[in-house]
Design a protein that fits this description.
Low-confidence stretches: 76-83, 96-104
Number of strands: 0
Number of domains: 1
Order of helices and strands: HHHHHHHHHHHH
Strand content: under 5%
Radius of gyration: 22 Å
Length: 337
Amino acid sequence: MRGSDLIAAKLALLLLLAVLAGWWASSTGAGGEEVPIAAAVAGALLLVLGVAAIYEGSSLALAWGISRVRRGVRGPPEDPPGSQEGQAEVEGAFDRDRETSPARRFGLAGAMSVFVAYIVGNAAVWIVLAVWVAVRADDATRDFEARFIESAPPWVALSALGAVAAAFMVFRRLSPVSVRALPGVSGIGPARQVLLGIGIGVGANLAYLALVPHLPVQPTKMPDSVLWEMLTREGAGRWIVLATAVLVAPAAEEFVFRGLMFEGLARALGNAGGIAGAGVLFTLLHVPDTAHYWPATVMILVMGLLAGTLRVRTGHLGPAVGVHFGHNAVVAILWAL
């Protein structure tokens, strides 16, 4: 059996499940209202594909983790990725990939595929939550939006993990080498470099906050997004979101943007192009939360560029995570006060 036959069988099964789920949703309705069959099937297809992506990505991530543990028990490999021999092996794998398998070339297209997978994985988790809230009948008197926002805080971390799992799955499909073999991604780097990144992230955000009162434009309204709705509400949900923003988001987003995506962008555009490209895509991801005030969007871009620069200059991902952590920590502290 060829691999293409297995992929075709999986897609056919997923399509069948989506049609059945869409037919069921259309016949039962949502909240007592009739749902068009086309909309129901489209929504179910996205949901099924998202769940499948999360499942397969999580399986690959778990298998990778198990292999790391087994490798740690057996001892380090003879030529670790950071060594001269390990680096040559990685470069040779990418060179062979370019020469013999253009369809599997991990460059600009691969990086964009990882970006799309990240968004789809994130959206799939929120769709699952929306479906779960819609079918619950414990409090039908309250509107859907109120129940959704009330249930959302614990799902923020799940959405980040789902996005990383989907991005990781696509990277493993397209890249000729494993994540562990990528220089700068498999290790966080020396503690002093991570602390340097944290300091830069904190300093950059404090400088931005000091500059805001002197800008000609001032924030006049809060963004219309689920994240900000959760942050403005009192209760445990607010603290769950803040903890996720500080403890989960920096590692998850930097692993994808300054880790997986940067590799493809840098191979196609060079280090400077990789830094700029990852920074722009990272900013686009946060536009829904910053579009109400363009200086905040610029600040996100600056943070992304700083993280990418440290990723290149130090050769490790840890300092980039530190920049992100420092920036988010300042935001979390201000929200907590």
